[in-house]
TrEMBL record, chains A, B, C, D:
Residues 31-164 form the YutG/PgpA domain. This is Phosphatidylglycerophosphatase A. The lineage of its organism: Bacteria, Bacillati, Bacillota, Bacilli, Bacillales. InterPro entries: PgpA-like_sf, Put_PGPase, YutG/PgpA. GO terms for molecular function: phosphatidylglycerophosphatase activity. GO terms for biological process: lipid metabolic process.
Amino acid sequence: MQEKTKYSLNSKAVAEATEIWLTKRGVTKEAIAELVYFLQKDYFPQLTQEECIVNVEAVLSKREVQNAVLTGIQLDMLAEEGKLLPPLQEMIQHDEGLYGCDEILALSIVNVYGSIGFTNFGYVDKLKPGILVKLNSKADGEIHTFLDDIVGAIAASAASRIAHRKQAEREASGDVPLR
Amino acid sequence: MQEKTKYSLNSKAVAEATEIWLTKRGVTKEAIAELVYFLQKDYFPQLTQEECIVNVEAVLSKREVQNAVLTGIQLDMLAEEGKLLPPLQEMIQHDEGLYGCDEILALSIVNVYGSIGFTNFGYVDKLKPGILVKLNSKADGEIHTFLDDIVGAIAASAASRIAHRKQAEREASGDVPLR
Amino acid sequence: MQEKTKYSLNSKAVAEATEIWLTKRGVTKEAIAELVYFLQKDYFPQLTQEECIVNVEAVLSKREVQNAVLTGIQLDMLAEEGKLLPPLQEMIQHDEGLYGCDEILALSIVNVYGSIGFTNFGYVDKLKPGILVKLNSKADGEIHTFLDDIVGAIAASAASRIAHRKQAEREASGDVPLR
Amino acid sequence: MQEKTKYSLNSKAVAEATEIWLTKRGVTKEAIAELVYFLQKDYFPQLTQEECIVNVEAVLSKREVQNAVLTGIQLDMLAEEGKLLPPLQEMIQHDEGLYGCDEILALSIVNVYGSIGFTNFGYVDKLKPGILVKLNSKADGEIHTFLDDIVGAIAASAASRIAHRKQAEREASGDVPLR
């Protein structure tokens, strides 16, 4: 006789699934890190690609971010398989301009690192640099209505995290006038 | 030879689907209106159930609200059918406390009627009066992880809408001192 | 014997103050409408400056928007007069990058017209076209830390409103396939 | 000849001002911790007052939180002194129901610890337990229109933080089934 397993959240499983699903959907940490570099290079000329990756990883370690990534990718995949009910199926499939739940989930990611990330999120979401062009190409029937915005949000969050860290470094090094 | 129909949003279809899906999932406008009455009766003793329904209908006519309703119900239904990938399946199925995408979608509804609705949303979400108890009972294997929060958000939004309208009525009737 | 006047909100006074304060701070509806045109001209080539103004006026008629405008301008003015306490005075005066309450108030404006406005808000906030350059110039000791973001948010909201209206027009004209 | 000091953010000064201003306005960490205990005691019966304080301190160490605290208290104080322009002065002075910028700033605090805090924020904001009654009493001409909501938001955020930590502890102790 099989006993019903009591539910209990397994955080490691959630974190691992986030990493696996992102990879399966064609999004590497390196690709997100490039967006971060694009956003921050003018403010911090010494910024390295490695630092960008470290900050992307830190953002991805947050539960709230993992939840949004998994939920968004799940909806994209179901839309790809045509398994959503109309008219939701059509709105997500065609990345309908008046459908904003993708931006909503993306913003929940940005919020974790504070409001200074809103600007960067909107900027990359409009310009679509790097990996974002590819996610938007709709090549081979792929649908990335949610992932597109989510990747921009992770990059904007990592950029905010870097801005906070750089300030802390500057202050720790004594490069701040006493008042 | 069949031509591929060009995609074009059909707003009426989205509005109708919202109404149909809510009904199918056991949520009537009357039940939401009762939550609104619960929230506002102390502030507006003359408030009628009919007024509450009118305001719920106004909230439901907003595109942003319809998008959130359809997306949330879709995820609930897929979770009920066990069609989501683990660990998302388990988190939504068990209304995991650390999973917050349901609150995120709900908040996007509240936002449309402004920040004064946050308090009412949190209040009914905690107390679970009326229809919200039923949605939370998990009876017969039903899953309403998203709908639960969404219904609370619609009620909170209708309450905000009433507060704005009542003020306008008061001012139109001249019951405001000149300054 | 003077009786203490009972407080009662005067909505007309709030709406008028919003218009007056914006004008005093150098922001005309026409200047905001130009930002709207910049954001939407590629999507709606027939769009006129007059339509943009009408939509800006509609956004400005919302209470939530008026509250954010008045609160933001008030803080800018107090900072200009040096009347805020340190370190808040310094953060607002220098538009400190890690201070995000200006973006927070701006987002509360965008939210009223839904999440599809986030992208446009971030975009103009980064590019600073038209009136936004002037607000950022810090010429003559003027401080527009809040107003800068608020004006971008009003423009993004008006752009969202236009997107919703244009869809409604298209559907009313029968230019949508039946399904 | 005096040189103009170049502006540079001093994070320590911001953190210290936050602590000092809260104390001056009658809000101790202990009082906020009591709200946290009120919110979480049913879920975590072993929870101690000390743990609540530690979590309140962690929330208060976040820049985004400090910015909202300082901005909100500043507006409260200026309203107390009658130094805001009408009609903003009257709206903040009377904690006008249709003025929602206080909830906006509060929500920016809650957001940092994710959407699971919305419910707790709304709940304490409605019930007004502990210190929140006092902040709302308007005794002696004190105005706490912003601080009231901000304190509720800090408590809700600390409650979210505890929920995340407790889950991590449970998993670290092996009290989670392998899957």
